[in-house]
Design goal:
CATH topology of the largest domain: Alpha-Beta Plaits
Helix content: 40-55%
Structural class: alpha+beta
CATH class of the largest domain: Alpha Beta
Number of strands: 11
Number of helices: 10
Length: 360
């Protein structure tokens, strides 16, 4: 590990010189890339230098203790100081191991969240609405912005499908474990007999991708325009503002009609299409890396039931890590950090195990 850290420190120092080079600064795109790389290494280099400083101090103390004729009081002071240094070194070592875990390049990105009602008809659509509200509340609590992309409502206020974007630093790193099938057990508002029903909704969390991440050939697209339907102001059914984009090679279809402008609907649809194509490419890549798949919390497969929301018992259970929280009401109001922290910690521990097994 120390060899790897020494290499990272040398790389960090090299990048420090490069980003201060006036010649490199003239190419802003290249310079910004170097700045991001430098920033990504800063935390681990800082910790490594702390580690080396404590190690050096410990070695100096041990050298002093080995000298003959050392005053007893001084000897006791050095011994106590060494205990503190050893504890600090161990703590920093653990922190460095976590920092060495390969980072997800998407962690700092904004996200698209897609929620669809699953099994359960109207109740599933109402649950999809509840999940949408949960994530909006959570985003608001962190100061993130939410932008609605598309919405397909039911007559009683449920969501057959909703696609929205959450813009905020680290949004993907916090929400990426939410992808999967969410199950709810509760008495529906429409149920007169008071029986508990089980329904599901599917959540997909996709990182926003840049144009350079996914290249789309315009010749692979079929773009249809049509008149909007439903809520949308005076322009509904009077102008062809709605847009449907079909990606011919994959068969993916994205439709947008929330904006009155055809151009804005097209831009939104292309962003969602890029995110979905990126997700497919990432899934194909990760399927070829068995260790990487084992290091994830679950597989991310949308057919996998990841969590149950039990209203009669006031509990929410995540089946991937076996964690149950008896605070369903506040959880549905967006208080989900405890669950997300546990999922992140579990993911980190699994990746640390893999690093240990591979000898890193």
């Amino acid at each position: 590990m120390l060899k790897k850290l020494s290499f990272i420190e040398n790389k960090y120092d090299e990048l420090s010189h490069q980003i201060a080079d006036p010649v490199i600064m003239q190419n802003q795109a290249a310079w910004q890339k170097l700045v991001r790389e430098h920033s990504d290494l800063e935390d681990i280099v800082t910790k490594y230098r702390e580690y080396k400083s404590r190690e050096k101090q410990l070695e100096e103390n041990k050298a002093m203790l080995s000298e003959n004729g050392l005053d007893p009081d001084m000897k006791e002071m050095f011994q106590e100081d060494n205990k503190i240094l050893e504890a600090e070194i161990e703590k920093i070592h653990d922190e460095i191991r976590i920092l060495l875990i390969p980072t997800d390049p998407n962690d700092k990105k904004n996200v698209f969240v897609e929620i669809r009602g699953g099994a359960g008809g109207d109740e599933a659509a109402l649950f999809a609405h509840s999940l949408y509200r949960l994530y909006v509340k959570y985003a608001e609590s962190r100061g993130w912005r939410v932008e609605l992309m598309s919405l397909n409502e039911t007559d009683i206020g449920g969501f057959k499908e909703v696609v929205f974007m959450i813009k905020g630093e680290g949004a993907y790193s916090r929400l990426k474990y939410e992808s999967g099938v969410h199950r709810v057990q509760r008495v529906p508002e429409t149920e007169s007999s008071g029986r508990i029903h089980t329904s599901t909704a599917t959540v997909a969390v996709l990182p926003e991708v840049d144009d350079v991440d996914v290249q789309i050939d315009p010749n692979d697209l079929r773009i249809d325009v049509y008149r909007s339907s439903g809520n949308g102001g005076q322009s509904v059914n009077t102008t062809d503002s709605a847009v449907r984009i079909t990606h011919i090679p994959s068969g993916l279809v994205v439709a947008m009609q929330d904006e009155k402008s055809q151009l804005k609907n097209k831009e939104k649809a292309l962003k969602v299409l890029q995110a979905r194509l990126y997700e497919i490419a990432e899934q194909e890549r990760s399927q070829n890396i068995a260790d990487e798949r084992r290091s994830q919390v679950g597989t991310g497969d949308r057919s996998e039931r990841i969590r149950t929301y039990n209203y009669p018992q006031g509990r929410v259970t995540d089946h991937r890590i076996g964690l149950t929280l008896y605070k369903l009401e506040t959880f549905m109001d967006g208080d989900i950090d405890e669950m997300l922290d546990a999922l992140t910690a579990y993911d980190q521990s699994e990746k640390l195990k893999l690093m240990g097994n591979s000898g890193n």
